[in-house]
Amino acid sequence: MRGPCQNSSCTFNATKTCVLGNPPDDCENRPLLDVEDEEEKEGEEDAGEGSVGGEDDASIADAGRVGMPVLTAPDDVLRSLPASRTLGIAQVNAITESRPACLVGVVGLAGAGKTAALVSAYLLLSNGSFKGFSFADSDTLRAFEEITRGSRTWQKGNPPEQITVHTTLSNDREAGFLHLRLRRDEDDRIFDMLLPDLPGEWSRALIDRDDTDRFAFLGASSVIWIMVDGRQFGNPGRVAHARYRAKLLIERLANLLKETRPRLIVVPTWQDKVAFPQAEAEILLECGRSFGFEADIALIASFSWNDDINPGQGVAELFSMTLTAGPPPPDFWPATDPDSNDRKLASFRRDV
Predict the structure, then answer these.
(1) Domains annotated on the chain, with CATH
(2) What is the DSSP letter of 42?
(3) What's the pLDDT tens digit per position in 224-236?
């Protein structure tokens, strides 16, 4: 006995007529079947038709599921990792809309230590050494692991030449944000922090060309960190230029933030190399206040090759200062002295 026709252009299987004109039982395109196997197969089919219930019914039901998915579809509510290591503006907006969060603006030239401060904070948290806070969660663990890779090769007495790599972004027009959720030890309060890891070239473009397009998110920030290289301010030959660039950066931010004035924290880095001059600190703070900012200063040493200064010194204090509540809001309706020439509602009050 022969089986179905194997010729793809033949219609014998449907019409029982060979397109080549061959006798159906002699056509080479129909392979011969084993007669004993065919009879056994027919016997099994007849037995199946006569059985009722039991295991045969289960076999029939299983046969009906042939080709169906073996596993159920994944639950849509299951949490998945983001496609990017850092969060984009849309994801940041989703977080700030769902719960209170502290958005921090981080600006500064290349080499000022922006990424190093974030790496230092993450390492301190992972080792339980972050003064006053403990790690609660993060939506960007992969990003933190990526930027801390260089620091994991640090051996005592043999530090690497470069702790962090130069920051680059896949989208050069949109900031990438890191997320940290911290638990404050004194009251168990939870804080969500969103911190951008930006290339120093962005700040250089802001200073040199007043390129503000990529810094629109600063208008929604609660605090802005201005990272300055402390080594430059400790060098008599470079301090004047470093001071000028820092003051110009503050002025650019003031022009950008026309309607808002986030809290400004000047963050001199590399304190393990050279102490930041107090006179320079006062100059930068006064510059910030002259543009309407509430200005503070926080000295840090993200890493240290100095036996007198611990790695990460001042970093936890910087975060604590950032999360500290600002000044109380002004009175909704402050009391004023009535004026006879003023026809405002307050002029009709009667003094008791």
Answers:
(1) 1-46 (no CATH), 89-323 (3.40.50.300)
(2) H
(3) 999 999 999 999 9
